[in-house]
Here is the input.
Amino acid sequence: MTFGGNYSNVSTLAHELGHAYHQYLMEELPQFNQDYAMNVAETASTFAEMILADALLKNAGSEEEKLALLAEKVQNSVSFFMNIHARFLFETRFYEQRNSGMLDVSELSALMEEAQREAYHGALGSYHPLFWTSKLHFYITDVPFYNFPYTFGYMFSTGIYARALKEGEGFAEKYDALLRDTGRMTVEELASKHLNVDLTKPDFWREAMALAVADAQMFLDMTK
Ligand SMILES: [Zn+2]
Here is the structure.
């Protein structure tokens, strides 16, 4: 990877290390049990990113450094909840309209801008109607909706992280066991077996999102 030693490079390194750790845990399993679905593919990588982000925040040398790190973290949540949500809205509406014919450039751009306004709750100063031209994921035709797994993965991983913070070191074994089962269970089964939670109920997701909200609150408090 390109490594210049900045935050984003170190975070990418942690991310890829998460993927490597996931695969390492599954190495001894039969080949057919090693293949996991998209919705859990980013669990270990996002988890590793969160460990790094929190450790850096904890060890920040100054208020300024802490604020910069926090800004990165909040920005990350904004991407998962708003930017990727906009892509999802765009793609959903694109497929709906594509049913009745081709869409031209102005129609695609209008769809894109509308999706951004909605996903960002009108909070942006300017919009990016041509975003659909630049995002590779929209052109991987055999993997439609290649945006949902990122937000799902982020939320699932954050929920697991919230649990890890609560349970401390004892959670490590459960974490490994959960990752090891990712190739042979649905995500609902994984959560039920290893975390004892029902993913169809809102509780787990609320716990996860409380972490993101706490970061945003801390950022607001520090920048008053
Ligand atoms: Zn990844």
User: Anything to note?
Assistant: Residues 7-222 form a domain with the Neurolysin; domain 3 fold (CATH 1.10.1370.20). The chain has ten helices and no strands.
